[in-house]
Design goal:
Elements (H helix, E strand, L loop, with lengths): L1 H30 L4 H10 L2 H11 L6 E3 L6 E3 L20 H38 L1
Antiparallel strand pairs: 1-2
The structure holds zinc ion (ZN).
């Protein structure tokens, strides 16, 4: 019985570590304007390390780039200065305030799903601890 408890403990521990890295990959993906939830579940299915490598290879989503009007190179949509020719982008052209607000609303369910998953795993961990102390 002791060995089973130890095994479950290790399983729960590594599951939490795994979940943590999957969340990191999801956060990294949404930073690159890719689906945070999609990449999070993909990390859970495949493994955070492999999906992270995929993300590095794929780079930012195409919609995260804007074309510099001066040198026609593609730069990050959040950039204020072109990294190729130092062209200064007008502050408000690409991101009207309503767009940013819509993005925030859309990102709310992602954090909610992650919060629920963390809560569930924390609950599982607590049940395991109680189970250990009862013995
Ligand atoms: Zn430029």
């Amino acid at each position: 019985m002791e060995i089973i408890g130890l095994f479950v403990g290790w399983f729960v521990f590594w599951f939490l570590v795994y979940l943590f890295f999957a969340i990191l990959v999801g956060a990294y993906a949404s930073k690159k304007r890719r689906s945070g939830v999609g990449w999070f579940f993909l990390s859970l299915l495949i493994s955070p390390l492999i999906t992270l490598i995929f993300l590095f290879i794929l780079g930012p989503s195409h919609s995260s780039l804007k074309k510099c009007p001066r040198c026609a190179e593609e730069v990050n949509i959040d950039a204020q200065i072109c990294r190729f020719c130092n062209f200064e982008f007008p502050q408000s052209n690409q991101f009207p305030k309503s767009d940013k607000k819509a993005g925030n609303v859309a990102s709310t369910p992602i954090s909610r799903v992650i919060a629920i998953l963390i809560a569930l795993s924390a609950f599982g961990f607590m049940v395991f601890i109680i189970y250990l102390f009862k013995k």
